[in-house]
Amino acid sequence: MAKENPTDLKSEQDVSKYFIPPDLKKAKKRGKEDVKVIRDFDIPEDMQKIGKGKYYLVRTYGCQMNAHDSETMAGIFEAMGYQETEEENQADVILFNTCAIRENAEDKVFGELGRLKHLKLEKPDLILGVAGCMSQEEKVVNKILKSYQHVDLIFGTHNIHRLPDLLRDALFNKELVVEVWSKEGDIIEQMPKVRENGLKAWVNIMYGCDKFCTYCIVPYTRGKERSRRPEDVIAEVRELARQGYKEITLLGQNVNAYGKDLEIDYGFGHLLDDLRKIDVPRIRFMTSHPRDFDDYLIEVLAKRGNLVEHIHLPFQSGNTEVLKKMARKYSREQYLELVNKIKKAIPDVVLTTDIIVGFPGETEEQFQDTLSLVEEVGFDSAYTFIYSPRAGTPAAIMEDSIPEEVKKDRLQRLNDLQNRISRERNEALKDQIVEVLVEGESKNDPEVLSGRTRTNKLVNFKGDKSLIGQMIDVRITEPQTWTLKGEIVAMPLKEEILDVANG
Ligand code: 5AD
Ligand code: SF4
């Protein structure tokens, strides 16, 4: 149904009722009592066929948590009869699942929303929605109300299960529909999901974050730490294994805190110890916080099997003073000690990390500590960022006198160093044989296949399309900085072929 003049109504809305401004003291007092596990998710009857003959498009920004939320949104759309499209012109609903972690992530979304204004004018029935972390910010919602009045629907990270009801309101009401629960979040089980492919699957093990690093907006946009029940996680992984998935990535903002909010004595190490018994070739996880990485977890990871020898372990800064200002709750020495423990237990472990440069007040000497830590640990790769102030976080009001050029120069020097180390680490793989999960054809050359090692390195090699989805052995012939080139040495069916020959 077309909207007559939606803009007047929108600008009158008071959105302040949806938001409680970030309050560190209050947020830190988060209790565990009021997390509800909701198991009766259903699509309302009147919405079950609403999308018949219609198309949806979900565009995702940010981390894997967001990408997996988009799979849930897609699942809900398909349960309402919608089909997926990549074409904006064909879509009846376009949803932006947004990221708030840095300003440039937000700028991109505003750019896209602006660009789509003409499409909305041409096609007034189009529903344009904003979901994800940006929706949790009052200033974003106000900006949309003021300057992007062609948006029909805004909902937050705690409201995904409400999509059918919100969509109904957006389709049949004239007002902008805003639903952003600033509460700390429940756990909604059994939502439908459309997974990206049949090989690799993401599984949430927990939601939210209670760490409150002073630069980070996630504890405010994603609510408090809350773990899914172990039996729910195990059942989901079992089912994915049964369906033939080859690789599971367990997701949480801080997976090492898994279980701390449950009333049972069961942590991330226990969960991994249970999951490793499931017949699925690979299990990995994202993201770890060094503070909660305990000895039992290392002991379980050292059992290997389907637990891969790759750990993403963000350190953010190599200087203890800066770490203190970031409220990371560990020192440089403690981080290095943890790394040494992990390397001792798993000598061929691949470590990757996240690093922030230009945190307020960071001196050249403090930055040098970050460089020296990178050198000392020898990460295989790193995501590196210039600090971006986020309104409402404690660091946003810290004095920041570092000029922009200095921050950019630090990032460049850090990237140069990391690239050199990445190259060296990859060079060490030359002539080695690695197990590769074949994921698909290379984009540039259909004769070339690509896949990933247990340590998540991308390998390109010549091979037949029929190998897609299989585990094969590949010899690394040409290591490069970010990828590896190789050649197949063993096909997956060799035992069966031998059996046939012998029989
Ligand atoms: N500015 C820059 N980088 C940030 N990160 C989180 N918040 C900020 C910020 N305000 C980085 C951290 C984190 C990764 C996901 O993003 O390195 O680990
Ligand atoms: Fe993911 Fe954090 Fe970005 Fe939200 S703000 S999408 S949780 S990285």
Automatic annotation (TrEMBL):
<keyword id="KW-0949">S-adenosyl-L-methionine</keyword>
<dbReference type="GO" id="GO:0005829">
    <property type="term" value="C:cytosol"/>
</dbReference>
<dbReference type="InterPro" id="IPR002792">
    <property type="entry name" value="TRAM_dom"/>
</dbReference>
<keyword id="KW-0819">tRNA processing</keyword>
<keyword id="KW-0479">Metal-binding</keyword>
<dbReference type="Pfam" id="PF00919">
    <property type="entry name" value="UPF0004"/>
</dbReference>
<keyword id="KW-0408">Iron</keyword>
<keyword id="KW-0411">Iron-sulfur</keyword>
<feature type="binding site">
    <location>
        <position position="209"/>
    </location>
    <ligand>
        <name>[4Fe-4S] cluster 2</name>
    </ligand>
</feature>
<dbReference type="InterPro" id="IPR013848">
    <property type="entry name" value="Methylthiotransferase_N"/>
</dbReference>
<dbReference type="GO" id="GO:0035597">
    <property type="term" value="F:tRNA-2-methylthio-N(6)-dimethylallyladenosine(37) synthase activity"/>
</dbReference>
<comment type="subunit">
    <text>Monomer.</text>
</comment>
<dbReference type="InterPro" id="IPR038135">
    <property type="entry name" value="Methylthiotransferase_N_sf"/>
</dbReference>
<feature type="domain" description="MTTase N-terminal">
    <location>
        <begin position="54"/>
        <end position="172"/>
    </location>
</feature>
<dbReference type="GO" id="GO:0046872">
    <property type="term" value="F:metal ion binding"/>
</dbReference>
<dbReference type="Pfam" id="PF04055">
    <property type="entry name" value="Radical_SAM"/>
</dbReference>
<feature type="binding site">
    <location>
        <position position="216"/>
    </location>
    <ligand>
        <name>[4Fe-4S] cluster 2</name>
    </ligand>
</feature>
<dbReference type="InterPro" id="IPR007197">
    <property type="entry name" value="rSAM"/>
</dbReference>
<feature type="binding site">
    <location>
        <position position="99"/>
    </location>
    <ligand>
        <name>[4Fe-4S] cluster 1</name>
    </ligand>
</feature>
<feature type="binding site">
    <location>
        <position position="213"/>
    </location>
    <ligand>
        <name>[4Fe-4S] cluster 2</name>
    </ligand>
</feature>
<comment type="function">
    <text>Catalyzes the methylthiolation of N6-(dimethylallyl)adenosine (i(6)A), leading to the formation of 2-methylthio-N6-(dimethylallyl)adenosine (ms(2)i(6)A) at position 37 in tRNAs that read codons beginning with uridine.</text>
</comment>
<dbReference type="InterPro" id="IPR058240">
    <property type="entry name" value="rSAM_sf"/>
</dbReference>
<dbReference type="InterPro" id="IPR023404">
    <property type="entry name" value="rSAM_horseshoe"/>
</dbReference>
<feature type="domain" description="TRAM">
    <location>
        <begin position="427"/>
        <end position="490"/>
    </location>
</feature>
<feature type="binding site">
    <location>
        <position position="63"/>
    </location>
    <ligand>
        <name>[4Fe-4S] cluster 1</name>
    </ligand>
</feature>
<feature type="binding site">
    <location>
        <position position="133"/>
    </location>
    <ligand>
        <name>[4Fe-4S] cluster 1</name>
    </ligand>
</feature>
<keyword id="KW-0963">Cytoplasm</keyword>
<comment type="similarity">
    <text>Belongs to the methylthiotransferase family. MiaB subfamily.</text>
</comment>
<feature type="domain" description="Radical SAM core">
    <location>
        <begin position="195"/>
        <end position="424"/>
    </location>
</feature>
<dbReference type="InterPro" id="IPR005839">
    <property type="entry name" value="Methylthiotransferase"/>
</dbReference>
<keyword id="KW-0004">4Fe-4S</keyword>
<keyword id="KW-0808">Transferase</keyword>
<dbReference type="GO" id="GO:0051539">
    <property type="term" value="F:4 iron, 4 sulfur cluster binding"/>
</dbReference>
<dbReference type="InterPro" id="IPR020612">
    <property type="entry name" value="Methylthiotransferase_CS"/>
</dbReference>
<protein>
    <recommendedName>
        <fullName>tRNA-2-methylthio-N(6)-dimethylallyladenosine synthase</fullName>
        <ecNumber>2.8.4.3</ecNumber>
    </recommendedName>
</protein>
<dbReference type="InterPro" id="IPR006638">
    <property type="entry name" value="Elp3/MiaA/NifB-like_rSAM"/>
</dbReference>
<dbReference type="InterPro" id="IPR006463">
    <property type="entry name" value="MiaB_methiolase"/>
</dbReference>
<dbReference type="Pfam" id="PF01938">
    <property type="entry name" value="TRAM"/>
</dbReference>
